[in-house]
Design a protein that fits this description.
heterodimer, A: 202 residues, 3-stranded antiparallel β-sheet, 8 strands, globular, B: 208 residues, mainly alpha, elongated
Chain lengths: 202, 208
């Protein structure tokens, strides 16, 4: 939506993502409570902690897939989620799958750039059952990019990615944040998010 | 949005290798009865509506395990929820797609089954109309059962136990469709199932 002449770009105001006194219970076990954090537009939040501490649960909670036991999540604009399951149908080609999701997101115009950014454009005609796990993950990330959401919720986004692909992801996240977007990622190592806040769970 | 979901579901059904399975099952089950009961044409014609309805009911249940369980497992449902799309809408789309995907081929195969069972034209037409009215209820029940059993091991067998008792009204009014008012009751059963189905299935799919 840039106006010709490079005048003031009308930036939709996105509220910061606020996690207020969140608690989460799974299978009768209290994973965490009193969790507070804030992510400002352009910011990033890393969720760390041992296996089973509740990183994925927190992300699912932010994505609306779980209800918090206590506390509220405010702001954050529109959110896009990538979990461990990439939701690609084995018989459909990667292009068909991502086109479907981009239609749901009104993001068909953003799709080609997203495919290029994650280096999956050349795989568009390949049935998803023939994709490697790293390629699937890149496709899932391309779906997040194409969604045009304000806040990305990524569960171990670099799992299964080679170094080159991890670099692509780091660039995409940097571009997203430079445009005022937010990133919340559950991680076990460095994923190339400069100046990110960190919340240790458990 | 709704049309997009239906189109997607239909596309996946059309690409699925099991597309023709329910219809083949329907015709084969109907064809078995003349062998089992014997070649008494009058007897066959008398029990033909019952045979066709039971075969149709069992044919609805065949694809139950692939109706929703794969979407739950591969995270598609998660992606839909994360987009704020109501699960009721998703399930309504699935019911429509399942109906088109199984009832339309079934109706197309009905003449074959009717001939195999020695039905005359008038009876065949009536049972065709009854199937047209009653199959939406079966599709709705199948999606509800699929939602309830998604993520369970051996969910298909359980889905049968859920659907078969609930399908009794449809079966009764469908087989007795020569009685006055049966068509209306059949239509009513379908409307109730269609009205309740998406909400029941949506509620069953909600993550805890």
């Amino acid at each position: 939506m840039t106006k010709p002449g490079g005048a003031i770009k009308p930036e939709p105001v996105v509220e910061p993502l606020v996690l207020d006194q969140l608690a989460c219970r799974r299978g009768g076990r209290l994973l965490f409570e009193g969790l507070c954090a804030q992510v400002d537009p352009g910011g990033a939040l890393l969720l760390t902690g041992r296996n089973g501490a509740g990183k994925s649960s927190l992300l699912r909670l932010l994505a609306g897939l779980l209800r918090p036991e206590a506390g509220v999540v405010r702001g954050g604009g529109r959110r896009a989620f990538l979990g461990h399951d990439v939701a690609l149908k084995p018989r459909q080609t990667l292009g068909q799958e991502l086109t479907y999701w981009a239609r749901l997101d009104d993001g068909l115009a953003r799709l080609p750039a997203a495919l290029a950014a994650m280096n999956v454009a050349a795989l568009a005609d390949v049935p998803c059952r023939h994709l490697s796990s790293g390629q699937r993950r890149r496709a899932g990330l391309a779906r997040v990019l194409a969604a045009g959401a304000d806040c990305w919720l990524l569960d171990e986004p670099t799992a299964g990615l080679d170094t080159a692909s991890a670099d692509l992801l780091a660039q995409a996240m940097a571009a997203h944040r430079a445009a005022g977007g937010m990133v919340v990622a559950a991680v076990h190592g460095d994923i190339g998010l400069a100046g990110a806040a960190e919340v240790r769970i458990g | 949005m709704f049309l997009l979901l239906v189109r997607r579901d239909l596309l996946l059904i059309a690409r699925s290798p099991a597309l023709w399975l329910p219809v083949m099952f329907f015709v084969l089950a109907a064809a078995l009865f003349p062998f089992a009961v014997g070649p008494d044409a009058r007897l066959l014609a008398r029990i033909a509506p019952g045979i066709i309805w039971v075969s149709a009911l069992l044919a609805t249940l065949l694809p139950v395990e692939t109706l929703l369980a794969p979407d739950v497992e591969d995270g598609s449902i998660d992606q839909l929820i994360a987009r704020g799309i109501a699960l009721e809408l998703v399930c309504a789309a699935r019911i429509v797609a399942h109906w088109i995907g199984f009832a339309v081929p079934l109706l197309a195969a009905l003449p074959v089954a009717a001939v195999l069972l020695g039905m005359n034209g008038a009876d065949g037409t009536r049972i065709g109309l009854a199937l047209l009215l009653g199959t939406p209820a079966l599709a709705s029940l199948a999606v509800v059962a699929a939602a309830l059993t998604a993520g369970l091991r051996g969910g298909g067998a359980l889905a049968g136990l859920i659907v078969l008792p609930l399908a009794l009204p449809v079966l009764i009014f469908g087989v007795g469709s020569d009685v006055a008012g049966a068509f209306r009751l059949l239509g009513a059963a379908s409307l109730v199932a269609l009205a309740v189905g998406p909400f029941a299935a949506g509620a069953a799919l909600k993550p805890d």
